[in-house]
Amino acid sequence: MKKKISITIDETVLKEIDNTVDNVYIRNRSQAIETLVRESLGGQKTAVILAGGPEKRLERNGDFMIGVKISQKTLLEHTVNKLRRSGFKNLLIVGRNKILTRAFEILRDGASFGVNVTYIEEKVSKGTATTLRLVKGKVHSSFLVVYGDLYFSQVNIGSLWDSHIKYKPVSTLMITTSAKPSEKGTVTMEGSKVLQFVQKPKKSEVYLVFSPIFAAEPELLDYTGKSLEKKIFPKLAEKGFLRGFVSAEKEVHIHKIEDVKNIKL
Predict the structure, then answer these.
(1) Using CA atoms, how far apart are residues 21 and 32, in angstroms rounded to an integer?
(2) What end-to-end distance do the CA atoms of the chain give, in Å?
């Protein structure tokens, strides 16, 4: 929600602000001021780590996937370090009780990692959208979402974020390519605009797919549906409210211990 305010500002500073208006990404003085303030508050950027779902599904060899060791550090530590380096210092972790307990064992309050961590318990798993909706009321501006089973240390989430802030759609998805699009959410794009989103199509000639990392506005949490991929993203694409950012680097999904072998450090 936007609020109208009145401020007094030095004339020279105002001219510098006006010089950032390019009528493409920044269309007016109000947007220029908002963009510059957001950039100056970079340390307050928020990221949500989605680790919801049945605990049994996320457990391997007596530990949860967030605790899998990759080069002497847990997957969760790699995730948090990457987010911190990218300017995301306010982290929300959503998951079942045992998942959150394991995450707390690794991170505590996040101070030793240079971040602030809030733990949000999921009682029942109904889908990615219902899990994400648990952060409603706790995010009040643009935020990033990453899925908890990903290793993405080489992915440029900073550029994804910048693209989202420039265009300000309801959501901006990280996009990569896949030789097996039927196992992913496929996207049809024109420029950076997503025209269509189809989750795990039976047959597809589209090889651009959703990498489970995205930026969003709080209004995303107002859309109804249990699944982001099956209900909400297709709806946003249809309305023209969904954009994509194509990444040269790919994430690695850690679904089993053997997946660690696919990681290039």
Answers:
(1) 6
(2) 42
pLDDT tens digit sequence for 173-211: 999 999 999 999 999 999 999 999 999 999 999 999 999
The domains of the chain are located at 41-155, 158-248
Whole-number Cα distances in Å, 46 to 18, 70, 151, 217: 28, 25, 19, 11
Count the helices and strands in the chain (H runs, E runs): 7, 15
The CATH class that applies to domain 41-155 reads alpha beta
Based on the number of CB atoms within 10 Å of its own CB, is 193 exposed (0-12), middle (13-18) or buried (19 or more)? middle
Read off the tokens for 147: 């899925």
Token pair, residue 64, equals 């949860």
pLDDT at 30: 85
**Could you tell me where the DSSP H helices lie in the chain?**
11-18, 29-40, 75-85, 97-107, 128-132, 157-167, 233-239
Between CA 51 and CA 149 the distance in angstroms is 7
Q: Which CATH fold would you assign to the domain 158-248?
A: Spore Coat Polysaccharide Biosynthesis Protein SpsA; Chain A (3.90.550)
Q: Yes or no: say if 73 and 263 are a contact pair by the CB < 8 Å rule.
A: no
Q: What is each CA distance from 255 to 157, 162, 247, in whole angstroms?
A: 22, 30, 22
- Fold agreement between 41-155 and 158-248: yes
- Rounded to whole angstroms, how far apart are CA atoms 103 and 105? 5
Amino acid identity of residue 185, one-letter, is G
Beta bridge partners of 146: 49, 213
pTM (2 decimals)? 0.84
CA neighbours closer than 13 Å in the CB half-sphere of residue 6:
0
Count CB-CB contacts under 10 A for residue 119: 17
Handedness of CA 183, 184, 186, 191 (dihedral sign): negative
